[in-house]
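Attaching the record inline, Q. Sequence:
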Amino acid sequence: MTERTPRLASTLQEDHDRLGTLFEEFRASRAASPERRAELFRPFAAGLRAHIRFEEETAFPFYGQGDPACDSTRTLLLDEHRRIQEVLERIEDRLAVGPADTAALEEALLNVLWAHDAREEGQVYPWFDAHLPTPRIEELVAVFRRLEPQGDRD
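Structure, as predicted:
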């Protein structure tokens, strides 16, 4: 079997890695000014929201159409997206008021993201590459690359 290029799974996993790096940069900035911390958090939050938006609006509608097991996984992932968005907003709210301890919220976000990413990378993303025709995968990858926020590095 010939490997498809580009693959949606690897594209989305690479974005998970990119977002993880941005989040770690933010987490390492606890001694920085509130303005700097907010500046570091913005590209992470924007990138994660773009990633979630792509999944929900573009990719997930194709995932396991009509398969009840895939339907329940998709429902769980959408619920996790909602929780991720809530924590992002809470961190942003804390950062907006000046010096703020966000450590507990950061841990809460990591806990959701860890399980969520494992589910996507282990089950959902491979499904796309195994079940969707190559032209559809190429289309999804192209759409994703257009949605990625620009300028997320200083």
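The longest helix spans residues 68-96. The chain has one domain: 8-147.

More tomorrow.
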